[in-house]
Amino acid sequence: MSSPSPIPPPNDRRNSRASSNGGLRNEADALSEPSELRVVGGPPSSPSPLALRASNSPSSKRRKSRCLKVPPEMSALEYTSTPDSNLVCLICHAPFDKPVQLPCEHYFCRECLEHAWTPQSTHRKTCPTCRRVVESENEIRPVPKIIETMLDELVVKCPNTRTGCTWIDHRVNVHDHVMLYCEHTPIECPAADCRLHTTQKDFHKGCLHYTISCDDCHVSLMKKDLEHEMACAMATMAPHFREQQARLERHEARMEPLARKVGILEDGLTNITNMLYPANANDASFPVADHLDPNESFQHGAQGNDSNSNEPPFDSQVHHLLTLHENLREEVSRISTTLTEVEGRTNMMIINESQRNKDEMLHTNAAINNMRMQLHWLMSATIQQRTTTASSSTSRPSASTSTGTTNRSTTQGPSSRPGPSGVLPAPYRRLSDTNRQDTKL
């Protein structure tokens, strides 16, 4: 027993082509065979009579006719950029569609040229540009292949752009796109009694050409035009609402750690308050006092207990703490100002004392210099006097010696003592003598 052959996929074109070619060959072989050997009856896969009757019914033909699509018009295409002027027809002012070439080397669209020649006589046809006579149809030639290639490479938009198609491609592919792939291609309505058109994507929805009312905006419009997401105000604001919701969630996520920090700070403030205000039945409130002056704080405390025993001096405990903080800040500022003033006075006293010491030193230096000059003058005078005295004392003994010798030779008796008329030399006095007098200034 032979194994069954594998079933080919439904879209296998090669198998379909092979089967179609095989069928053609089988039909040719059957026609070539004599009539006696022919097998009567259809193949095993032939459709049933009911299926044949249904396929040939008027409703089926009408359904097939309603699915027919209109091919796009090349002259109505929208180009993404301005086409080259050499590729534009001079009659329709659009890029060539099935262009032809005249003997005068002018190019036109085939339909435009036939439309221009319609009012002319059949025996006299001229070029719309240069009026050259075209003798016969044989003179009309196709354009070069390069021009057709340039026309096919022009980039165009889908003819159904206004209905929502965003397809953009070369012009050579626009026919296949519109006829096969575009979901916005208009086709006839599937309803038998409707002669309007619908899009290919809505063909399976049935007839959409009846008036309804929107449940939200209460606007009467056709079913095919009911785009609630585009017309409804709530649908328009939905993206903003989603964004606001996401923003609120982000803010809540950020607020969680801040809330924990605030709770910790509140607990700390509560502890500080409990330390400042211990639990006491007779304790109403504590007034603010200057802690730097104990007497003043005691007086303020006594006055506060006497005068404001019923109502507290502050609205809250936080106000009390803030007031204490401000008092401390003012006290620190006052102390800083006092220190600055004391430092300035001290610096001024030091500067004045230094200036006075400098003046005294200048006077002392001047007196010392004056004494040095006087001492120098006295020493010079003493040295000069000493030199003069030494020279005079040296000359006097020599003269007295010679005179005494002469007298002793002439007179008798000893005469060694000096007489009353004799002059004694002045004694030599040194600087180290105790009986000298000091120089007085």
From TrEMBL:
SMART domains: RING. It comes from the Eukaryota. Residues 89-131 form the RING-type domain. Residues 296-311 have a biased composition (Polar residues). Residues 38-59, 386-411 have a biased composition (Low complexity). It comes from Didymella glomerata. This is RING-type domain-containing protein. Keywords: Metal-binding, Zinc, Zinc-finger. Residues 1-68, 289-315, 386-441 are annotated as: Disordered. Residues 1-10 have a biased composition (Pro residues). InterPro entries: Znf-RING_euk, Znf_RING, Znf_RING/FYVE/PHD, Znf_RING_CS. Residues 430-441 have a biased composition (Basic and acidic residues). GO terms for molecular function: zinc ion binding.
